[in-house]
Design goal:
By secondary structure, the protein is of the alpha/beta class. Helices cover 29% and strands 17% of the residues. The chain has a single domain (12-357), classed as Aldolase class I (TIM Barrel), CATH 3.20.20.70. The two termini are 30 Å apart. Bound molecules: S-adenosylmethionine (SAM) and iron/sulfur cluster (2 copies). The site of one iron/sulfur cluster has 12 residues, from loops.
Length: 359
């Protein structure tokens, strides 16, 4: 029997000290010349799925110490921070988790964020409750949505989400999102060799017809619990080759600087796909993302082992001006480029989990 390993992620060890002086705030670029453009906000560390590559059951069991409610950032706190980030140049917000649609009254948060100003506001979900939420999300001001789906094969999907959740319900959610006008819809598929690589073509075929964009994601070594091995990664080049052999593709440029997906369109004009090659073709050079964890820590890289405690600033009466100065100072110091040096790592640091920081 597997021994249960409990890793308390949200403890003091994952805190990084904020810069003391805020004088050296620079010109808005980090140490590698990158600007802050996107903010991913994790609104819960909980999820009703146990995807084997993200929240394996052996670790995230019934006794797992998820964050208590009082530790979570409130909607007011998230909105206040988002406004400060927006003033610093962030024009894209993505709500994520855990499963963001499990956070109660999430529509209220969307409404508050939509009120901030001109922003691209989107959300990533496992789609499990999307069928009944799509309309209210759209009405609240959500513009687009990304739904994660790893297989169209019911048995395989149930095994991958490890919650015995049927694929039909996620497909209903995707249809409801399309009906509600949450377009264009992106469908994220994490590809694991020997697990769901047979689904690459069926997924491409199915969503090409529906007009949704499938994004094939290389299985990543995020966190410390998913048993990642390079052998499990299907390189994006292989994904493109396999689709192209049946449905010819040609490359399209990225739609904006910092876009992580490499885009390809079907030569017959029937749509496009994306591939996200975080393992085989690192894109750290264009990484403009900041991440806000469920209890208000700022992470400047998906692979960081610690975050800056912004909640402490919020709850200690620090004003917006000072928080803004802190954020600029943190960003000016940023030197993250983990994916570029992954192969050279000799020691494995304890990295933060995807479900806590948001994908
Ligand atoms: N629960 C929501 C969902 O699944 O869409 C949002 C959070 S989830 C952490 C965000 C994205 O991260 C999902 O598309 C998921 O497939 C992806 N993801 C999680 N673990 C991953 C891993 N080890 N490698 C690549 N992508 C991963
Ligand atoms: Fe939950 Fe999303 Fe992680 Fe799957 S990928 S376990 S749905 S947070
Ligand atoms: Fe950005 Fe870190 Fe990923 Fe590189 S490894 S793309 S810096 S999040």
């Amino acid at each position: 029997m597997n021994q249960r390993i409990v890793i308390p992620i949200a403890d003091a060890r994952t805190r990084r000290a904020l810069p003391e002086g805020t004088a050296a705030v620079g010109n808005g670029e980090d140490r590698r010349g990158r600007r802050m453009r996107d903010l991913r906000i994790s609104v819960t560390d909980r999820c009703n799925f146990r995807c084997t590559y993200c929240m394996p059951k052996e670790v995230f069991g019934s006794d797992y110490p998820f964050l208590p409610q009082a530790e979570l950032l409130s909607f007011e706190e998230i909105t206040r921070l988002s406004r400060i980030f927006h003033d610093l140049g962030v024009d894209k917000l993505r709500i994520t988790g855990g499963e963001p649609l499990l956070r109660r009254h999430i529509e209220r948060l969307i409404e508050m964020l939509a009120g901030i100003g001109t922003l691209d506001l989107t959300l990533t979900t496992n789609g499990s409750v999307l069928a009944r939420k799509a309309k209210s999300l759209k009405a609240a001001g959500l513009q687009r949505i990304t739904v994660s789906l790893d297989s169209l094969d019911d048995a395989r999907f149930r095994a991958m989400n490890d919650a015995d959740y049927p694929v039909a319900r996620v497909l209903e959610g995707i249809d409801a999102a399309a009906d509600a006008g949450l377009a264009p819809i992106k469908v994220n598929m994490v590809v694991k060799r020997g697990v769901n690589d047979d689904d690459i073509l069926p997924m491409a075929r199915h969503f090409r017809q529906a007009g949704h964009i499938v994004r094939f994601i290389e299985f990543m070594d995020v966190g410390s619990t998913n048993g990642w091995r390079m052998d499990d990664v299907v390189p994006s080049a292989e994904v493109v080759r396999r689709i192209h052999a049946e449905l010819p593709l040609e490359p399209i440029g990225r739609s904006y600087n910092g876009e992580v997906a490499e885009r390809w369109r079907y030569t017959d004009g029937s749509g496009e796909i994306g591939v996200i090659s975080s393992v085989t073709q690192a894109f750290c050079g264009q990484c403009t993302r900041a991440r806000l964890s469920t209890e208000g820590k700022l992470y400047t890289c998906l692979f960081a082992d610690a975050g800056y405690d912004l909640r402490a600033l919020l709850r200690n009466g620090v004003d917006d001006e000072q928080i803004s100065a802190q954020l600029r100072a943190v960003w000016a110091e940023r030197d993250d480029h983990y994916s570029e040096i992954r192969g050279a790592q000799t020691t494995v640091a304890r990295k933060v989990e995807m479900s806590y920081i948001g994908g």
